[in-house]
Amino acid sequence: MKNTHIVYLGVFDKLIIMPPPVKSRAIDTLLKKPLIRSDEAKDMGISTSLLSHYVKSGRLRRVGRGLYVRTDLAPQVDFEWEEMVYSVLSIPNGVVCYTTALILHGLTDEIARQYWVAVPHDTSIAKRPRVRLVRMRNHALGISSIKLGNIDVPVYDLERAIVEAFRVTGPEVAIKALKQAFGSERKIRPNVPKMLEYGRKLRVKIEPFLMMVTT
To answer: How far apart are the first and last CA of the chain?
Structure first.
């Protein structure tokens, strides 16, 4: 009986020191991505100390707050947008909004001197360089994405970007964006019923402006 007890202890000890198979699979899955967020890693049971270990060993490179890229598979993002992509993706639930969304949709000639990013209303988050955070109660309305290089960047869809322009950017920029969106050279035009719905939910009287470009 005594020997049996020792054998069981030996097996138990081995189980303690062996790395959990689930975590090993999680690490393999995570390291297949070109861009890794620390909160995503935490949800998979991977500690920041392990990410730091991979940085020291040369497998990862830290590019922002809680954001890492693989050294052998860096994101293919134009230099013009690299800072914005890293800034937005370092923010949990961050979505590009306002003027920055208009720029990504090709609806304004404004220069991105700062990046507007929407987060849920109850979000508590540290400031980022050149990032203007906007806490929104209707944060989930109209979230889509735009591919920059090989990275999908969350951004409000075409319809919400235009509707919100009338509320936050001023009539000149908003009307110009609306006209460009319905221009003959654009392959995909805004969905009018969706814009009307967004107008109601965001409390923007968009109808008169839509009549101007659609009639």
So the answer is: 91
